[in-house]
Amino acid sequence: MDGIDALRDKYLAATAEAADEAQIEAVRLSALGKKGEVALLMRSLGQMSPEERQTAGPALNALKDDLNAALNAARVKLADAALDARLATEWLDVTLPSRPARQGTIHPVSQVMDEITAIFADLGFSVAEGPQIETDWHNFDALNIPGHHPSRAEMDTFYMARAEGDNRPPHVLRTHTSPVQIRHMLENGAPCRIIAPGRVYRSDYDQTHTPMFHQIEGLAIDRDISMANLKWTLEEFASAFFEVDKVEVRFRASHFPFTEPSAEIDFRCSWVDGQLRLGEGDDWLEAGGSGMVHPKVLEAAGVDPNRWQGFAFGLGIDRLAMLKYGIPDLRAFFDSDLRWLRNYGFPALDVPTLAGGISR
Ligand code: 2NL
Fold it and tell me: Which residue's CA is minimally distant from atom 4 of ligand 1?
């Protein structure tokens, strides 16, 4: 009995002195572990007489319980002390304002697409949309582009795969938004004033070409629409888009299968210290192509060319966006990380970056 009380005193004292988790565990092992002193005593119960065992057994169990309770209490005390220490040093001012969250913005190309759409809306054009995967008829034949035309060659056009044994002509990724206008005329007839903005695809990749790019085409069909109406429309567009009073438009004779006559569209401009100025100077900015819709195209689209005529034009949106926002490489738009755009002042993309910023 005395031995048990002595053990209790010894291990309660040791527990009280244990300064950390490891020391508490060491005390537990030497008392209650497999080879601990209490365990050894437990084992000696076997050699005792039944009378001795009747008192020693419960006393040993009580010792075990007391030591376990003391050890657990010591652990809890340690944990409480650690928490108190953390609470004293780590604290949070919940009255501070939150960090500003970075917001996304509309992609510059989408912004420009919206701007252009708004300008043409003011001029009475509505927006038409259509599929990006087209039949070769809507993309080529209806536009008077013959089967042997270079733009139909494998190298320019992305063709969709057909199942083995399916010999119908393959669908294509539209190479321009003209098929949208073909579909519009087929469904709504004439007259019409529409623009068709959207993604187009050509198998081309370099400094000035990406396999996906954006185009906006315009179409105005009525009884007496002329190139003069086209020129005025483009001048109104250019001055609104580049935010200057007046931009002179120059037509250069050209050829497209879907227009006759056809004209390249140039805007008067100047380059001063690498900076583009519109509406002044002796330079010309190539902006796209245009012309009077070819009678064969009207016919294919179900519009009687003897009753109706009109103009059409196509503008590249990506280059207009680059010029307006001063971005030199088209590829920055579509296949670079956000740091690139940030370099051009799109503030929502303002993330920390390496000095110099640009890396590819
Ligand atoms: C360019 C040239 C052009 C058209 C697009 C068109 C559409 C129909 C009928 C006739 Cl439905 N023409 N579109 C006409 C002339 C030129 O685009 O260089 N685009 C960037």
Answer: 313
